[in-house]
Amino acid sequence: MPEETQAEPTVGDERGSRPAPPAGLPRRADPRGPVPRRRRRSAVAGGALAVLVALGGSYLWLRPGEARETGSWAPAGTPAAAPATPSAGTAARAPAGDWTRAVLTLPGDWVLTGATSTGEPAEQGYALDRDRGRYAAPDRRYEQVWAAPRGGIAAVVDHARRGEIGLLALRSGTVRWIRTGNHIMNPHWSPDGRRLALTLLDEESGGFSLGVLTAASGAYRTFPVDTDRYLCTDHCFFTWGRDGRHVALQQTAPGSPLAESRPHARRGVQFFSATNGRPTRFVPVPGDPAGPWSWSPDGRLVVLKGQDGPLLAEVATGRVIGPAPAADAVWVADDRLLHRDRGSNEMVLVDLGGRERARRALPAVLGADMVISVAPR
Prior knowledge:
Elements: E1 60-62, E2 105-106, E3 110-117, E4 126-129, E5 134-136, E6 144-147, E7 153-157, E8 164-169, E9 175-179, E10 188-189, E11 195-201, E12 208-214, E13 220-224, E14 239-240, E15 246-252, E16 266-273, E17 279-283, E18 301-306, E19 309-314, E20 320-323, E21 330-333, E22 336-341, E23 346-351, E24 356-361, E25 370-376
Antiparallel strand pairs: 1-25, 2-3, 3-4, 3-25, 4-5, 6-7, 7-8, 8-9, 10-11, 11-12, 12-13, 14-15, 15-16, 16-17, 18-19, 19-20, 21-22, 22-23, 23-24
């Protein structure tokens, strides 16, 4: 099958590159957390690379616990500005009454597409049914409900059905269960809501693979990853590129310190085709992109989770421009970022100078224990 063209800005083709891993560097990790570095390779063969609860497919999953205050950042080289505060624009109130009966519009002309809990006991999940202009709240309390950005469907997780993913039709409430193998952490929807990317663990070998599920047909394919060539340690997961045709995997920087208490340094991100699993392009960005909207619309910049906090970096060179408001901030335009203020439970729109432009309060039920998803209107 012909190789797809990589749409993201790229630097070099890493298919032939085999960076030498640091001495003693484990090739695998346990899904419950990073493997102690002192263990021999044979001792970790039963685990795969620890996977971050990552942001989802065509939109970003905005998680509790990773916020920075809006006024605490501004990329280097931008004009000086007064610290942004909630008074920069009065926050639009959260919907009164039954908020699920209408689409919740966010600053920047984006919308809330869903919310889910990830712990236990499970809380009520929500998924936007665009056809009906309201949010579906499944009667059954699935452990996780990951709303697709489009298509009237959600991926659901039932811990009693190990190695399976359910495709929930929002209008009818019916679920089609697909055997996928033991996926680690969260699934990720493509930007168009047609495909789901999974990070899979092989418990016997300790290796991991990319799994791609087509929602309409239920077709499912897996693609093993050569983790000697494309080495990732610490928190590793597949997430979509902005074009929706490729997935990205973080790459560990050879020779860097591997502390348990600090994110591992990255040499860049490797893209793979979601159609055939082949490696495509490498970009030298120094951190982890959360999802497709981490990449700016013009392809020049990317929001990353860095070793010391959220970063804004240049895609072509990996040069750090400055801090970002949050590791899961989304680009709504080339000069606007949208992120969640966990302290006030509001969505905040800021410009590249760190100036606040608008706020919108979220319903109180979508509190600190809920992971929310957002997407373009």
